[in-house]
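Running this now, will post back.
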Amino acid sequence: MNSQSAQFEDINFLEEKLKSAQLPKDLYAKAAADIERLVRLASAKGYGEEYDAVSRYLDWITSIPWNTRSQDVLALENAKKVLDTNHFGLEKVKDRILEFVSVDNLRSAKGEKSNSPALLLLGLVGTGKTTMAYSVAEALGRKFGRIPMGGMGDASQLRGRSRAYPDAEPGQIVKVLRRVQTKNPVILLDEIDRVTEEARADVMGVLVELLDPEQNSGFIDHYIDYPIDLSEVLFITTANNTGKIATAVLDRLEILEMPSYTDQQKIIIAKSYLLPRDLAASGLSPGDIQIDEKVWSQIVRPLGFDAGMRTLDRTIKGICRKIAKQKVENKVSKVVISEANFKEYLPSY
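Update: finished.
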């Protein structure tokens, strides 16, 4: 097959994709004109970059879920079960989320759309902000997409670049929509307080538009250059503190504070969640290790107080690795960690 035949085959594929994409009428008309333009370019010599740019644009607009949505799961019992399975404690946060689910449940019964506000999960490092966002998506039965905001240095990473630029591409919002293939996913904007100083004003301006229900029904990505309805997206943001978040952005967020964990809560979480998971990840069985009750207070504080769970998780992983090594070396079949020997198993920081 020569290159021109391959081009016409690509055009036919895009044309079929266009017919099944359910684009808005005016965007469809524009795309159909671009298809005709592609045919002319493919028939001519020296089409080069222009052909590639037009075909890439058509591929993007036909890949956006303009009308495809997932069915929400609004049963309160299901949401409670998911939240309790994935998180210990955090009762106030869970109650607030269940309140939002309840409101959506009642609105759905009346045939009205969800109107859950954009959320800000606010708390110190390791307090479960990101995993809580995953849990909300799971509880609602929605697709999930994450956009890391830490270190973001250009608002075009969210909003895309105009096709006038040679390296133009859509922003992260459109990329997430294409990936999840529904128009009502949960999108996590992670660490919105950690964008770079140089880009802060521009990024915060885009966030205001994204998080405001009065504005996000016609969000403009500069590459797509056509209004995209984001009103059915549930946006969840996270931050360690509010000091570097614009007041206009905070004004559009429902703040849920993620509290620090007490030592007793950490012990329960370590026994019920972290240890079983880390044992399995290390290739060990539950019977390969026994930890005396008095040792747990030392395990949860290897470096003093820590608000979150990450250091504790690293500590348990380190213990599991040491035991795995001993088991492979045929030195032990089962390890009992007691006050007499626990220092041998704690990793050094």
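The longest strand covers residues 234-239. More later if anyone needs it.
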